């Protein structure tokens, strides 16, 4: 049997979780770039993404899973635009604090709207249960490999958008300073909307991957996972997508190694401790460079 | 005309006497909302049957919800709402989660309380005067698990020598740990490891790693359905070869449907044995059919039979008070709960037959779906347990544990 | 020659590659107005930030009389006697003008939890004393009609006056004013200049950053020219006006 | 004693809980309303106070069957009540000081996350460190002072008066503090820390004092809670409590001392009144079975039938409260708009 003990395996589990955290952290940091506030409602997009797929699979079992996931990602992406338009844009000029506190309210509304529809029962996705296969000395199930692949692909896509499309350049310009971008003739309203689609869509995908890995899940899992995503985002430096990816890997590994070698009862605490230390030592995050 | 005129504590239709209010004091929100969903329909069904037969002393029964939200402060105001505003004649509930926060109010206000769910060992020595329960204490349940694990005769697999205790960090689960562990050792087994884990985690690889290191022959897994699915699947992936022993929470079809046979097959579970008498005369089957139709369930859910017995006991106790002193009051009802279940009375198995007998002045002994319902001094019952084994997507009975065996 | 009250020696501050302040030196004579001029980005505000401890300099020393200020927290430097205003006034908009002024009163018993609860008598006495001082300063700065208005409602010039009044509550030894006249209408500007002169005759030491060169030449006793973070020249206005280096680097543009 | 029956008993219970939430809101208002410190971990101080009161007053482990905790100082009641409340207040303040010393310099958004994360860590400690907190079994024998001598009804009324008196005393003391220069200094630090520092105020120390004082008051609320409910369990101290107190503060009025208490009472009254939705609905259907009943059941028919539906509506309303207050009335019910510059201008 595959030797599942040891540091290598812990790192593997860490990387698997890191792929989910990274997607969430990149999405959060992108939306921070253009909205300039830390969105406490972000976790709910993960839950809505996951439960949209659960719902689609339930009503149309014939629907292939990848298609259901794509529909969910797009749907939650536009939901992000709607939420931003309804709750955040109208007070966008009022500074970060009112937006942050409003996001707490939005988190309550989105979370308990989902509970009202789906009740609090735990749900899971039709994903086959597999035994890990040995691969370079560590155990990894094909499903886990797919999850890492999908996450890597999604981040490659986001990287592509940022670097090689006009939208990407405009997004990076706006994320620096929204007023400046408006003065420079950029239609910042459109940029903000498109950024929200990508940000909320990434969250939905993260939510689906989370559910594939850690089913069954309850509709309230998003808020609980928020702090892990915050840790990765801030570790990488708020507003920096590449930083967020690096931060996610570190947080995923910290949780997994911490649980394996210290005590599994404090797994969340390890991510929190890393987060608080980072906030105190280097609030601008660990990654050099501005983006 | 105000839309919600007379909205609270209204006196119901014209002419008929005041309704007789009964409170259902369980969580209806939060992570334990499923408890409310399982218990409420049963109490409503029984109340409707009683009302159809003319109610108690001509008064219709009114069932009121008290949402404890599984939080102490919420349960306190919910209990106060039931006792002082709704002026309930009796209460079905509470759960182990909030019992200690509200126990004082039951005793102080003399409110008869029959809990169908609270197996917590903290209640083992506190009930008996106002608080009764139609669910066996976890200490008996735990002991039954230990006995079954040791006896191949009962579990049909083998006599397990080494056991690991894997228990979620919540009172409702921890309450099983000591009874299982100490009984298993008492019956000659050895507990090789005790693993307490934080409930509601994303994944449990590290905990499963510790389990495979301990390599027990069997693991007693006391947790929610959600966490049990995660742990057993992670263990399957980690190559765990030992058996599993689950508790009432997981021994149902819903749990099996959430995972695959290759993981769950051969797992042992425990349920209160359907009382042979109830099975023999078809009452158990009749109840299953009635409640599944009434509540729209596909299987009889956890605590349903306990709620049925709790409701019948409470209503019979009220009826006895009505017959003996012409009125229903809390103190007499509390005493009557024990009286209507006393072993020396004539056996009755539902409200109609019991009420009729009481009206004629004969002492009755209510025997329910869960068991003979013979209260000890603390208002606890002993009940026979059915040891089940998972086979595909259903549970097969492997053996029985009688209260005498423990 | 007046006694030197504040000495800045070899003060350097780098932000990444940019050297904002480059080994600047400055000696401030007591009871005089010293003007600090230089094109935008010459490091004037950063110099003030380093003196007042808001940014820690990379090298150099700042001595007020005998005490070294580098390394001390801004509030300690303020206590030592260095008062400062900001380029854009940082007044407390959610408090009245009077409350803004009273805020700056020094070492009040009422500021500590125990003091405020246990010694109401002392607190009341100090409040009365503070109110008297506030009234005196408000009158001096012609702000008394606005005493109970919320600071958020003040105009640009009035905010400058309020910030000046607030820092005067500290009775500082040296007063650092960061562009006290920027964005102020002429009539209010004249009042401010008149008040600065009154403070000087009262023996107050002032260092001010100002872009209006004509005003600087007329008002200041000494002028210091900063260029790319370094001290280019220092001396009386007449000397500075004629200094070829200054003309070339800075004043040259003013002549054409 | 039949004085406390029927609606009165329910109102007495709700009023006592409201007094406890009033204390929590005063503490948060001191931290955020007056000093601008965005504290998203307020429940941790509440828990610290409650557990301290429990540990100081509970019987020693030996005498309690199945006890897993190690420390029970069994301070005698009722004389010891002041001692346990003082200990609870102190512990709330100490925990706030520890968190404050590390996090207070952070810019507000980061402070929000740090306090939110630290409260999460503290919750894990409460659950895992059984030797101190009896783990998830909780401390269930916290003595209720004079409970035996007074009997339930009278005790409930007496404890309400005690809780109300505690709230009143804290309200007056903090009120006087806020009128004194201490309050003025806090508001200055809130408006601009740099300017306050330049005017000779040690802003780090001031923020720490304000943060610790707010934590101490929350600790006191925990002590009053512990002796009222008689049992302290981890399930009570979840993030939801923090945001309920935030909702009360926003509703009542940020930086309004009176508003904080009024907000707490309004919010608790709202939460407890929604308890009657189900009974009101049933009573209405029963009262007018034909016309209204049909309408109501038709209305409710499409809505999902599961029992978590109504409670989730209540939480959605609290969420909407956050959104609407910030957008249309940032100063809250009793707040003074000119005072609340930190919330940005109104619509």
Question: Could you characterize what this model shows?
Answer:
- The complex is a heterotetramer of chains A (291), B (406), C (256) and D (347).
- Chain A has 291 residues and is mostly helical.
- Chain A has a single domain, classed as ABC transporter involved in vitamin B12 uptake, BtuC (Orthogonal Bundle).
- Chain A has 11 helices and 2 strands; from the N terminus they run H-H-H-H-E-E-H-H-H-H-H-H-H.
- In chain B, the strands form 4 sheets. Chain B has a 5-stranded parallel β-sheet with strand order 2-1-3-4-5. A 4-stranded parallel β-sheet of chain B has the order 7-6-8-9, with helices on both faces.
- Chain B has 2 domains: 20-135 and 303-366, Response regulator (Rossmann fold, 3-Layer(aba) Sandwich); 139-272 and 384-405, 3-Layer(aba) Sandwich (Rossmann fold), CATH 3.40.50.2300.
- Chain B is built from 15 helices and 14 strands.
- Chain D is an all-alpha fold.
- Chain D has a single domain (2-344), classed as ABC transporter involved in vitamin B12 uptake, BtuC.
- Chain D has 15 helices and no strands.
- In chain D, helix 1 (7-33) crosses helix 11 (239-252) and helix 11 crosses helix 12 (257-273).
- The longest helix of chain D is centred in the middle third of the chain and has 28 residues, at 152-179.
- The A-B interface holds A 1-2, 4-5, 13, 17, 119-122, 124, 129-132, 139, 141, 210, 213-216, 218, 221, 224-225, 256, 259-260, 264-265, 267 and B 29-31, 33-34, 169, 196-198, 200-207, 209-210, 212-213, 225-226, 229-230, 233, 236-239, 258-260, 262-263.
């Amino acid at each position: 049997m595959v030797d599942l003990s040891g540091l290598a395996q812990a790192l593997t589990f860490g990387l698997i979780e890191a792929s989910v955290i990274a997607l969430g952290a990149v999405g959060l940091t992108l939306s921070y770039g253009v909205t300039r506030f830390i969105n406490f409602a972000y976790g709910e997009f993960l839950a809505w993404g996951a439960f949209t797929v659960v719902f689609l699979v339930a009503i149309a079992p014939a629907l292939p899973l990848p298609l259901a996931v794509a529909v969910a990602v797009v749907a939650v992406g536009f939901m992000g635009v709607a939420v931003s338009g309804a709750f955040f844009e109208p007070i966008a000029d009022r500074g970060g604090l009112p937006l942050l506190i409003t996001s707490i309210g939005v988190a309550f509304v989105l979370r308990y709207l989902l509970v009202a529809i789906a009740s609090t029962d735990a749900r899971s996705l039709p994903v086959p249960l597999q035994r890990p296969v040995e691969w370079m000395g560590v155990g990894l199930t094909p499903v886990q490999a797919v999850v890492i692949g999908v996450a890597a692909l999604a981040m490659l896509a986001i990287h592509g958008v940022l670097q090689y499309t006009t939208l990407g350049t405009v997004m990076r310009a706006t994320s620096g300073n929204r007023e400046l971008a408006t003065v420079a003739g950029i239609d910042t309203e459109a940029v903000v909307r498109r950024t929200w689609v990508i940000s909320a869509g990434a969250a939905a995908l993260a939510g689906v991957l989370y559910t594939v890995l850690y089913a069954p899940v309850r509709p309230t899992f998003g808020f609980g996972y928020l702090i892990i995503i915050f840790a990765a985002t801030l570790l990488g430096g708020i507003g920096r997508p590449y930083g967020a990816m690096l931060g996610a890997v570190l947080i995923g590994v910290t949780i997994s190694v911490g649980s394996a070698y210290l005590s599994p009862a404090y797994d969340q605490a390890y991510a929190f401790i890393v987060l608080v230390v980072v906030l105190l030592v280097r609030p601008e995050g660990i990654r050099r460079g501005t983006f | 005309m105000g839309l919600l005129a007379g909205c609270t504590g209204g006196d119901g239709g014209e002419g008929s006497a005041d309704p007789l209010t009964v409170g259902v004091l369980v969580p209806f929100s939060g992570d334990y909302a499923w408890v409310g969903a399982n218990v409420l329909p049963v109490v409503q069904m029984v109340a409707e049957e009683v009302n159809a037969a003319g109610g108690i002393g001509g008064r219709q029964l009114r069932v009121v919800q008290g949402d404890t939200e599984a939080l102490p402060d919420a349960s306190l105001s919910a209990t106060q709402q039931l006792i002082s505003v709704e002026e309930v004649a009796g209460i079905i509930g509470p759960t182990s989660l909030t019992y200690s926060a509200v126990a004082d109010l039951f005793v102080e206000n003399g409110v008869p309380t029959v809990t169908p769910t609270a197996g917590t060992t903290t209640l083992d020595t506190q009930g008996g005067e106002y608080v009764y329960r139609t669910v066996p204490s976890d200490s008996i349940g735990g002991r039954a698990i230990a006995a079954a694990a040791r006896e191949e005769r009962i579990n049909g697999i083998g006599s397990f020598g080494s056991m690991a205790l894997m228990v979620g960090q919540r009172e409702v689960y921890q309450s099983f740990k000591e009874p299982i562990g100490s009984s298993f050792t008492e019956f000659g087994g050895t507990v090789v490891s005790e693993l307490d884990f934080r409930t509601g985690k994303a994944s449990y690889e590290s905990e499963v790693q510790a389990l495979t290191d301990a390599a027990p022959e069997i693991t007693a897994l006391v947790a929610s359905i959600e966490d049990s699915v995660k742990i057993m699947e992670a263990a399957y992936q980690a190559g765990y070869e030992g058996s599993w022993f689950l508790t009432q929470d997981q021994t149902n079809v819903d749990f099996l449907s959430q995972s695959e046979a290759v993981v769950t097959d051969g797992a042992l579970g425990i349920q209160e044995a359907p009382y042979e008498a109830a099975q023999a005369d078809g009452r158990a089957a009749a109840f299953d059919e009635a409640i599944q139709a009434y509540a729209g369930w596909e299987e009889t859910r956890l605590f349903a039979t306990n709620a049925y017995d709790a409701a019948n006991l409470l209503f019979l106790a009220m009826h006895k008070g009505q017959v003996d002193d012409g009125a229903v009051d809390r103190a007499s009802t509390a005493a009557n709960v024990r009286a209507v279940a006393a072993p020396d009375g004539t056996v009755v198995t539902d409200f109609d037959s019991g009420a009729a007998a009481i009206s004629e002045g004969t002492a009755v002994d209510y025997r329910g779906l869960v068991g003979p319902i013979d209260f000890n001094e603390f208002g606890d019952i002993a009940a026979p347990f059915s040891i089940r084994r998972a086979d595909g997507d259903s549970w097969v009975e492997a053996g029985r544990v009688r209260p005498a065996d423990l | 020659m007046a006694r030197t009250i504040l000495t800045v020696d070899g003060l350097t501050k780098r932000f990444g590659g940019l050297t904002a302040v480059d080994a600047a030196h400055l000696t401030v004579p007591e009871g005089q107005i010293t003007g600090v001029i230089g094109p935008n980005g010459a490091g004037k505000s950063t110099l003030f930030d380093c003196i007042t401890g808001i940014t820690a300099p990379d090298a150099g020393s700042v001595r007020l009389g005998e005490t070294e200020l580098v390394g001390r927290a801004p509030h300690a430097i303020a206590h030592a006697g260095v008062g400062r205003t900001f380029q854009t006034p940082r007044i407390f908009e959610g408090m009245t003008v009077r409350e803004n002024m009273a805020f700056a009163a020094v070492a009040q018993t009422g500021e500590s939890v125990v003091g405020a609860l246990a010694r109401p008598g002392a607190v009341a006495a100090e409040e009365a004393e503070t109110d008297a001082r506030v009234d005196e300063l408000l009158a001096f700065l012609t702000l008394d009609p606005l005493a109970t208005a919320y600071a958020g409602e003040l105009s640009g010039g009035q905010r400058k006056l309020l910030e000046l009044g607030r820092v005067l509550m500290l009775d500082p030894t040296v007063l650092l004013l960061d562009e006290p006249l920027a964005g102020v209408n002429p009539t209010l500007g004249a009042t401010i200049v008149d008040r600065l002169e009154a403070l000087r005759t009262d023996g107050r030491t002032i260092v001010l950053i100002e872009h209006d060169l004509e005003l600087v030449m007329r008002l200041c006793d000494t002028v210091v020219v900063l260029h790319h973070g370094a001290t280019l020249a220092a001396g009386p206005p007449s000397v500075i006006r004629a200094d070829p280096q200054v003309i070339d680097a800075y004043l040259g543009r003013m002549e054409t | 004693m039949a004085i406390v029956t029927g609606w009165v008993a329910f109102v007495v219970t709700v009023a006592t809980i409201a007094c406890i939430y009033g204390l929590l809101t005063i503490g948060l208002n001191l931290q955020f309303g007056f000093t601008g410190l965005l504290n998203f971990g307020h429940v941790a101080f509440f828990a610290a106070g409650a557990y301290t009161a429990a540990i100081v007053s509970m019987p020693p482990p030996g005498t309690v069957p199945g006890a897993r905790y190690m420390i029970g100082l069994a301070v005698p009641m009722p004389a010891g009540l002041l001692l346990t409340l003082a200990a609870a207040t102190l512990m709330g303040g100490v925990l706030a000081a520890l968190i404050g010393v590390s996090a207070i310099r952070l810019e507000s958004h980061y402070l929000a996350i740090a306090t939110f994360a630290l409260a999460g860590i503290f919750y894990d400690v409460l659950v895992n460190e059984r030797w101190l907190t009896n783990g998830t079994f909780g401390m269930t024998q916290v003595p209720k002072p004079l409970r035996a001598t007074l009997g339930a009804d009278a005790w409930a009324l007496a404890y309400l008066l005690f809780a109300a008196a505690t709230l009143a005393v804290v309200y007056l003391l903090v009120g006087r503090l806020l009128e004194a220069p201490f309050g003025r200094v806090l508001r200055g630090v809130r408006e601009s820390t740099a300017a306050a520092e330049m005017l000779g105020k040690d802003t780090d120390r001031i923020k720490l004092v304000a943060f610790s004082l707010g934590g101490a008051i929350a600790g006191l609320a925990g002590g009053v809670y512990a002796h009222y409910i008689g049992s302290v369990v981890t399930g009570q101290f979840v993030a939801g409590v923090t945001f309920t107190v935030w909702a009360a503060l926003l509703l009542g009025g940020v930086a309004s001392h009176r508003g904080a208490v009024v907000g707490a009472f309004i919010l608790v009254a709202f939460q407890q009144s929604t308890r009657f939705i189900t009974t009101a609905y049933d009573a209405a259907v029963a009262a007018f079975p034909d016309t209204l009943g049909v309408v109501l059941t038709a209305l409710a028919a499409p809505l999902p039938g599961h029992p978590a539906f109504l409670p989730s509506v209540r939480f959605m309303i609290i969420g909407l409260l956050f959104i609407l207050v910030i957008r249309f009335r940032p100063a809250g019910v009793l707040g003074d708009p000119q005072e609340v510059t930190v919330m940005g201008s109104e619509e």
